[in-house]
Amino acid sequence: MTTEPELTISEELPADHRSGYVAVIGKPNVGKSTLMNALLGQKVAIVSPKPQTTRQPLLGILTRPEAQLIFVDTPGIHLPHHALGEYMVASAKQAIPDADLVCFLVDLSGEPDGADRAIAKLVSAVRAPKLLLLNKADLVPAEAVEARAAAYRALGTFDGDLVISALQGAGLDALLQAMIQRLPLGPRYFPEEQVTDQYMRSIAAEMIREQVLNHLEQEVPHAVAVVVEEYKEREDGSTYIAANVFVEKESQKGIIIGAQGSMLKRIGQAARAEIEAMTGGKVFLELWVKVLKNWRKEPHLLKRLGYAPPRR
Ligand SMILES: Nc1nc2c(ncn2[C@@H]2O[C@H](COP(=O)(O)OP(=O)(O)OP(=O)(O)O)[C@@H](O)[C@H]2O)c(=O)[nH]1
Ligand SMILES: [Mg+2]
After folding, report:
1. What pTM was estimated for this model as a whole?
2. Nearest to 13 by CA among 157, 155, 188
């Protein structure tokens, strides 16, 4: 009897193939999700100009001939004001010790503050290699970059630092090389065609929430949770999606729906276009706005909305 070779795929990989989890950590709004999408060359995480966009860690998987990088995009670390915030921060912090490489992302267009200092401390404490990523360099005059970078470098001990612009794609080739060099030798953990750990229905829910963030100001979008209740791929290539848009109060419901439903219509149209770009087919999207009183403060409601407490 002949024995089949084990792990046929890994036999095709070079002997020095590297792989591992790359946690992307930082304050809210510094560009973590933008960076992950840019490195992947496609949109896996939603992005918005408002802080606290990302609510739970999600994976973005980049498979190259010489390495597989499993990015972990995390919620921005901040001082939480409710159970949702506590969940977000705990899940982000948990990604730090679990990573093979920790990337601390900062916004070079501002001076370091207490929040950056606190996160730098958390990052400096782990054994894994650490990179300091100085993002939004496009917003800083060239002559000011060095002094600002030095202020961030002084926050902790890093194995390297790079000046980048996730938005403009500047410095990303060098960044990828720096990441790959610091990953351990290892196999591919995911099939090469897999780009994320999220289901299409969850990405669709996030794309709806992204449009809520884009269309509404101040507190309202932060009080929104979206759950896709039905996601049906039809034989003609189209997709039917029904989603609930949960808010915390009646007044927020009115704002989201807008006069004669005009706001909800705009949100729905914009989300539909994004989801169609993802599925490559026609999308029929139905949105229902519902009040779930104070859901951000209620652990049992968080769970129901998909924000499960972090693993311990
Ligand atoms: N000018 C400039 N803007 C950027 C850059 N990277 C990200 N941004 C913008 O910064 C804002 C926040 O980006 P996100 O990627 O959502 O930030 P985040 O760190 O994931 O934020 P949270 O999920 O809230 O923690 C968006 O408006 C981005 O377009 C950059 O390199 N330059
Ligand atoms: Mg984000």
Report:
1. 0.94
2. 188
